[in-house]
Amino acid sequence: MRIAWFGGAVVLALAIVWARPVHRATLPPRVSIVPVQIAADGNDTATLTVEDASGVPPKVTIDGAHAATVQEIVAAAGGWRATIRAGVTPGIVQVRVEFPGLRPGTARLMTNFDDSDSAQDGTPDFLRLDDADDDRAFRRWFTFLAETQFFQREAARPAEIVDCAALIRYAYREALRAHDGRWATDAHLPLLPGIASVGKYQYPFTPLGADLFRVKAGRFAFGDLRSGAFAQFADAKTLQLRNTHFVTRDVARAEPGDLLFYRHDGGEMPFHSMIYLGESQIEKSAARYLVYHTGPGPNEIRRPSVQELLQFPEADWRPLADNPRFLGVYRWNILRKTS
Questions:
Q1: Where in the chain is the domain with CATH 2.60.40.10?
Q2: Does residue 96 contact residue 65 with C-beta atoms inside 8 Å?
Q3: Which CA distances in Å does 205 have to 61, 80, 87, 164, 239?
Q4: Which tens digit of pLDDT belongs to each residue from 96-154?
Q5: Three-state DSSP class for residue 48
Q6: pLDDT tens digits for 237-259?
Q7: How far is CA 216 from CA 117, 220, 228, 259, 271, in A?
Q8: Selection from 129, 40, 43 nearest residue 93 by Cα
Q9: ∠ CA(24), CA(30), CA(32), 5° rounding?
Q10: Maximum distance among all alpha carbons in the chain?
Q11: CB 208 within 8 A of CB 157
Q12: Residue 306 DSSP symbol
């Protein structure tokens, strides 16, 4: 009996010894975030610190799409460091850190609503594409999507495109989406470009949801999220007054993605607009183009070159500084540089 008991004790003791390192190996890594609160402006960042002697970088993920993004993971003294970039939708961000064979470590970050409007034009700063890559991505997608409709058969175009403002709204909204495989399937485009999507946010995942066009005057404030200051629809006049800003009356200074506005007194739709494309992204040509929808009647999408428009038979449509019908070249407020 004593021998049996002693043998069992040895086995039990060895099991405890062997179990201890296995238990320690499964402990989650120690993680921390500084600061624990940042602005939900699409730019503010926090630093995630991971204490671990492993030579293998951790897998860092964000629970909740569009809440924040992991910008980079680099080796640091005693472990690893990652930069967490805020999204534009405020809330609690759960950060998950994983190493092979260990339980995941977690940390929380709070992103706070940002109501700043540095240009005081009614557009919240969280919508502004202040990164050069985002600016370029938006312009390329916006002009590509608008120009593509010129080459589409009328029956293949989105049913919403019925006038000049509708073409602009369509291209603007779709340019701000994530252009993944699902989007490509739904878009029914004849070809797709190799253009990166905007990184700061993707429509409709912002505090404004689907209502991305400013329709009421005034500086942006928190109450605008529910007051009807933004909507999914905006006519040409509203696009000019509330969503874009004047740049020049010299069309030679226009940049791809800018808009040309006209006003013809009389009629049901006095305001008209065109999209400045610059060079075509679809066919090889040295010419600079514009694209616009004629509206009811002809119900056509036309793509004249700048030179053709400057020599248009009806002088009221020529984009010349001395043409009183031509209001000038305007740029989207989300592309407005405020610093």
A1: 30-112
A2: no
A3: 18, 30, 9, 26, 21
A4: 999 998 999 999 999 999 999 999 999 999 999 999 999 999 999 999 999 999 999 99
A5: strand
A6: 999 999 999 999 999 999 999 99
A7: 15, 10, 8, 20, 17
A8: 40
A9: 170
A10: 114
A11: no
A12: H
Residue 206 tokens read as 């912002």
**Left if phi > 0, otherwise alpha if psi is -120 to 50, otherwise beta: which for 159?**
alpha
Enclosing H/E stretch for 332 = strand 326-332
Structure tokens at 326: 């031509």
The burial of 70, by beta-carbon neighbours within 10 Å (0-12 exposed, 13-18 middle, 19 or more buried), is given as middle
* In the block, residue with structure tokens 């058969």: 153
State the angle between helix axes of 132-151 and 164-175 in degrees (0 to 180), rounded to the nearest 10. Answer: 130
Residue at 27: amino acid letter? L
**318: region left, alpha or beta (phi > 0 left; psi from -120 to 50 alpha):** beta
pTM: 0.89
Superfamily grouping for domain 30-112? Immunoglobulins (2.60.40.10)
